[in-house]
């Protein structure tokens, strides 16, 4: 079947679907009533996404690339199934708004404080240095100063969506390389807001003095931020508490949408980017107890709208340029990856991280990212970047993003080669590994229980470091990128090397009674205020650990017995609520606090794990 025939069939299918929804050729239904705007485009978007995006997931490629491919197929440079690119793009801008809201939700003040050295030091250094070097290359190729600055900053950013997906799929988020890459990505996400403001300033530069425009934009930004933070911090928390009292999921969702769109609209009125308002709304909510529920509720909206945004970007990419100028595109992709790899590797190494971590981080973040599409498209719409240059940059970013999984595999290969030099010696922490960490969890014992705790922390994106005395186990875990080191948790100097001075908690999962007791005693003596949670064998062991200063204990035999008994009772017809009440009563009875005259309680450390 010829391409024109395929396109015609697709258009007819879309028209039939639109007709079924009550539309005629004139945009009105059978009764002459106006129809929902862009319903035909939305139907095409949904059908194409459902059919094509799963194929990219099957090939373990990023959904972002799938959405771009869908847009290229249905857009004017493909089969021209949808030709109203501007209309779809305006609606798709909501995807960027929700993306920035989710980033703000992730960037809690506490998280930024714990990772401040890596984020504001290494991360911002990467954005500035990479942006300057890439911008200088763009200027050398004949672009204007404004266009070169935007191109440099856009291509300096990496793909948060692709990189985070790879780290989570490979279980490497909690590794040293994963933590370093995440810190750099956080800095890049923070840089998006001033980047979009810069596009607005440059766009208005043709009609006014740049210095005055910069001053006005900064003044507006400061005023908008102050109003949102001062008024929003009080208002949002009280509104959420009021809505939560009604126990209505619909009202909770409505309030979340109001918070996102309301702040976006407010910053838009102030002449700033709507994405800035959404980012601030997310940052405010990240400090509340409603954060996790908001994140769960908003995720489907963000995913769909962001998918629509990338489809609208794909509709504007002329992949015919790739066929005509594949040599220049290849040079651009290779040049971008090499430049960013060299800069990233050098900067990570300069922050006293090992060579293997530096190489892997450099390769993982060397490609372009989704925000290149945001910035370049905005600059093209404002005539800062010409259409041919913009098309070229979009293709370079898309092709480099597609290479990210291969670059990550290359980094893993190089790490293995470097690790082979160490032979079979146990890998011990030196102290540099914990540099930049604060509030992390130290896990003593990396058996089945310790690994379960670590997996939960990794899923919650909370940093941890683990100690174990099993050499084969530590080397195997290290080969997977997990932050596990050989060391005895009963020795304070070993705990100091994994950052006990600024850790948030210590979890002791050792299966040896005497070793666990020594670890609790040594930790409590050196660090009196740090929370210590311990796995115990039985209630006798639990009492002993609490007396030594454990904050909380979980008796393994009791917990397994309770879970087993609960399943038996449910199978015999006992209601689940009744089983839960019984188990809770037993826990409250057997996890009783130590008596006030016990040493542990005198230091305020005698709370049971159930609390």
From TrEMBL:
Domain RCK N-terminal as annotated: residue spans: 438-555
Keywords: Antiport, Ion transport, Membrane, Potassium, Potassium transport, Transmembrane, Transmembrane helix, Transport
Membrane topology term: Multi-pass membrane protein
Signal peptide: none
Pfam families recorded: Na_H_Exchanger, TrkA_N
Keyword Membrane: yes
GO CC term, one of those recorded: endomembrane system
Protein name (record): RCK N-terminal domain-containing protein
Species: Pyruvatibacter mobilis
